[in-house]
Amino acid sequence: MHIVDGALAAPVVVAGTVLAVAGVARGLRDIPLERIPATGVLAATFFVASLIHVPVGPSSVHLMLNGLAGLVLGWAVFPAVLVGLILQAAFFGFGGLTVLGVNTLIVALPAIAVHLALRRAISAAPPPKAAIWGAVGGAAAIALTACCVALALTLGGDAFIPAAQLVLIAHLPVMLVEAALTGAAIYLMRLVKPELFHPMVRVAA
Amino acid sequence: MRPLAVLLLLICWPGAAMAHGVIADIFASGGQIEGEIAFSSGHVAAGATVIVTDPQGTALGETITNDDGFFSFVPVQPVAHHFRADLGSGHVAVMVMAEAEIRALMMGQSPRPATPSDEVRPEASATTTEDQQALATLIRQETRLLKREIAALRERQTFQSILGGIGYIAGLFGLGFYLAARHRLDR
């Protein structure tokens, strides 16, 4: 999910950059020392997942796993996504540097929305139920991301409804795959590393 | 540290605006400008509207690509021509032909001194203009295939790059971890 250089109007690019900087600042402040490795691992996951392309029509879509990153990281998803996007732009020419801010927002905002909506349910529910919530979160993050892309393109001049339909339909397979992956990952994490979802337990212990 | 790295990257970036996955090229052919737009996946962008403007953004006209992704445009003003095609879903093709090339083209001279078609000219000096043009077309076709292949190659993610990227991430977050840990020790 990368918008390329030159596809967006300048005000959108500037506003996106400003908001992304604010988000990254908030994220950096939010990462406790113990969470830095987890943030790095999820940044790497995002980086690699984005390289798995599924051809759809003349273009192709790719995995993102931003729902998983959001569920685990919260606001720290912003720096993780930014690092992943910078490296993708530098190594593979995905997206571009002027649209880095917009792309960061497009990926990170849905992740945070999913985090805010589902984090409590996932940390409270037993692992199988948490996995289902995780799957919902993974799919929802992709759907929201597709909407964000459509919105950004609309601000750049495209008509919203056709653009959104196109992006959403193209991402249906990705939503399914991500739902399965995120559900499985959340299940595994709840079993082997439950403290990822209970930061307060660590402080109290 | 990280903002600094980002800033450095931003400053050093060569400002490449080539859209991801889109291959676009224009060249002078006879008295007109011809171009083609394709995706690096091998699909051509058929039926795309190409908007032609001058450097100030004033519209000079527009044209539509045919089924092979080709379009042509006859320049009327001796100014640099900017070609822009919005292929949807954030794919944009942007091509620019410089003023000097447009002038040469409108004067009916050989438009691109640097194209391979001119390098073979000494050997083809005994041939007629038609032969030369046929040769130029042929070479253009051949190089077009090469260009497409190079673009596809450039886009292929190599295993080394992926490993390198993961290494960068590990390094960056390791550095962040180190700095944060040192900060905590200082306190």
Q: What does this protein structure show overall?
A:
The complex is a heterodimer of chains A (205) and B (187). The termini of chain A are far apart. The longest helix of chain A is centred in the C-terminal third of the chain and has 29 residues, at 127-155. A two-stranded antiparallel sheet of chain A has the order 1-2. In chain A, 55% of the residues are buried. By secondary structure, chain A is mainly α. Helix content of chain A is 74%, strand content 4%. Chain A has 9 helices and 2 strands; from the N terminus they run ααββααααααα. Chain A has one domain (10-200): Arp2/3 complex 21 kDa subunit ARPC3. Chain B has helices spanning 2-12, 99-107, 116-119, 129-155, 159-186; strands at residues 22-29, 32-39, 49-53, 59-64, 70-73, 81-86, 92-97. Residues 1-20 and 110-120 of chain B have low confidence and may be disordered. In chain B, the strands form 2 sheets. Chain B has a 4-stranded antiparallel β-sheet. A 3-stranded antiparallel β-sheet of chain B has the order 1-2-5, sandwiched between helices. Chain B is elongated and about 80 Å long. Chain B is of the alpha+beta class. Chain B has 2 domains: 22-155, Immunoglobulin-like (Sandwich); 157-187. Chains A and B meet through helix 2, helix 4 and helix 7 of A and helix 1 and helix 5 of B.
**Considering DSSP H and I runs of 4 or more, what fraction of the residues of chain B is helical?**
40-55%
The ordered string of helix (H) and strand (E) elements of chain B is: HEEEEEEEHHHH
Quote the beta fraction of chain A. Answer: under 5%
- Overall morphology of chain B: elongated
Overall CATH class of the largest domain in chain B: Mainly Beta
Q: Uncertain regions of chain B: pLDDT < 50 for 5+ in a row? A: 1-20, 110-120
Low-confidence stretches of chain A: 200-205
Per DSSP, what share of the residues of chain B sits in E-state strands of 2 or more residues? Answer: 15-25%
Oligomerization category of the chains in this entry = heterodimer
The CATH architecture term of the largest domain in chain B is: Sandwich
Q: Rough shape of chain A?
A: globular
CATH topology of the largest domain in chain B: Immunoglobulin-like
